[in-house]
Design a protein that fits this description.
The structure holds three protein chains of three kinds. Chain B is mainly alpha-helical. Chain B contains nine helices and no strands. The chains are: A alpha+beta, B mainly alpha, C mainly alpha. Chain B: The chain crosses the membrane at residues 36-57, 69-86, 128-149.
Chain lengths: 156, 160, 118
């Protein structure tokens, strides 16, 4: 009887675990480079002009605390993800505020989303590569940016 | 061991205390600390590896990856406790294995396993938090006090 | 990323050494030590010092039990921000639940699976 109960629990756990795994795996990134980006960190596109993103990356990378940065933009939104040099990670909150302010001044017409999170960095990088390759349209990019914004604001 | 307690003792008892203290085996503090440092550090590195795993293959951010990592570490603690390995690690590492959450998990799980012969309700249910209960109690109460003070300070003191 | 592993190791190790010193030098029992560490974690977060440590050391700061106190305070403050003073009471387990619920669930499963030794 006890063995039966144990087996049942294990099987249930396995089923529940795997069912969820598949769903998440699809939207997760796989097979991309973990940190490497292009030298300039931006993408050219035939449909959405990425020059704003390119400028933003240049400005951010000029800061001494920032190790690497990626950006993606649409006509209204600008998503910037960056990595802070390790010794500056104690001050990450302040750095984020500074960068946000700097970008707001530079690009007053864009809604600015800033993240220092490694996961967001990977995903933004992936998105940028995709724009580079397939030339996504404005609507699709906006959707992706929205998704990343939501992910970056999650607490638990 | 508190000083107030000792004052109430008779002179003979005080003498015995001194005698006892003299004979007490010296603990190898430095050696223990080095062991605790390496084992504790190693457990944290394993935790870091697990959290990178979750971040890479699932949609967790640096901010949210803590919870699944902790849960996985507790799961590992269950396996090692059940196999009797964790006790041996604890003997070697002291605080190095009891300060990380795995130690918390070990305390709960070993109590649960130990008391299962007394039945699931009275034994497992009743004794599970025998050791870990104080951690939860003081953690929760301290958090309540700290959060209350901070909230009041921010709201009416204009701090923060 | 290697820097992250390195600092997780160092900071995590140091917190464990603090625990070991409390046991060996101040002669506290492990239960007293762990309770004290949790309280320290809560107080550190009250001053806003624990979050930067997590940014810096990752799992080196989230795996030791001190982070339990930190996340309890965090949940309480976050909830208090939204709902006022009553949030201090209701929000406490908002962020933390993982450690405790995992310990309960796996503790019970462990009791089902394993037999007591000796």
């Amino acid at each position: 009887m006890r063995k039966y109960v144990t087996m049942l629990m294990v099987v249930t756990l396995l089923i529940v675990g795997c069912a969820r795994e598949k769903e998440i795996k699809q939207q997760s990134l796989q097979g991309t480079n973990m940190i490497k980006t292009n030298r300039d960190g931006t993408a050219y596109s035939y449909k959405v002009n990425q020059s704003i993103a390119k400028q933003a990356v240049q400005h951010i990378k000029a800061r001494k605390e920032v190790r690497d940065a990626v950006a993606v933009n649409t006509s209204k939104k600008l998503l910037v993800a960056y990595q802070v040099k390790h010794m500056h990670r104690f001050r990450m909150k302040q750095i984020k505020k500074d960068i946000e302010q700097q970008l707001k001044q530079l690009f007053p017409n864009h809604k600015i989303i800033v993240s220092s999170d490694l996961k967001i960095f990977w995903k933004t990088n992936e998105l940028r590569d995709k724009i580079n390759k397939d030339g996504m349209n404005e609507k699709q990019i906006n959707k992706q940016i929205k998704k990343l914004k939501k992910l970056s604001e999650e607490l638990t | 061991m508190a000083n107030e307690k000792r004052k109430k003792l008779t002179p003979v008892q005080q003498e015995y205390h001194l005698f006892e203290k003299e004979r007490e085996t010296k603990r190898p503090v430095v050696k223990n600390c080095i062991r605790a440092f390496f084992v504790g550090g190693l457990i944290c590195v394993i935790g870091q590896a697990i959290s990178y795993f979750y971040m890479y293959f699932f949609d967790f951010t640096e901010q949210t990856v803590g919870n699944p990592t902790v849960a996985t570490m507790v799961f590992l603690a269950m396996i090692f406790t059940g196999l009797g390995v964790y006790d041996r690690i604890a003997q070697f590492a002291g605080a190095g294995s009891s300060v990380p959450v795995t130690g918390f998990g070990n305390a709960v799980i070993s109590a649960a396993i130990e008391h299962r012969t007394e039945g699931f309700v009275l034994g497992v249910g009743g004794n599970m938090f025998k050791l870990a209960g104080s951690v939860i109690l003081f953690g929760t109460f301290a958090a309540f006090v700290v959060a209350l003070i901070k909230t009041i300070a921010v709201k009416w003191g204009g701090l923060g | 990323m290697m820097a992250m592993f390195f600092w997780a190791f160092v900071i995590g190790g140091i917190i464990c050494v603090i625990g070991q010193i409390m046991i060996d030098v101040f002669k506290l029992t492990p239960a007293h030590t762990l309770s004290t560490l949790v309280v320290i974690g809560a107080i550190l977060d009250g001053f806003g010092l624990y979050e930067p440590l997590i940014d810096f050391a990752g799992a080196g700061a989230t795996i030791p039990i001190t982070s339990f106190g930190n996340s309890l305070v965090h949940g309480a403050l976050h909830e208090a921000d939204k709902h006022g003073i009553i949030g201090v009471l209701t929000g406490m387990f908002e962020v933390t639940s993982a450690g405790i619920s995992a310990a309960i669930v796996f503790g019970f499963i462990g009791a089902l699976l394993f037999r007591p030794k000796g």
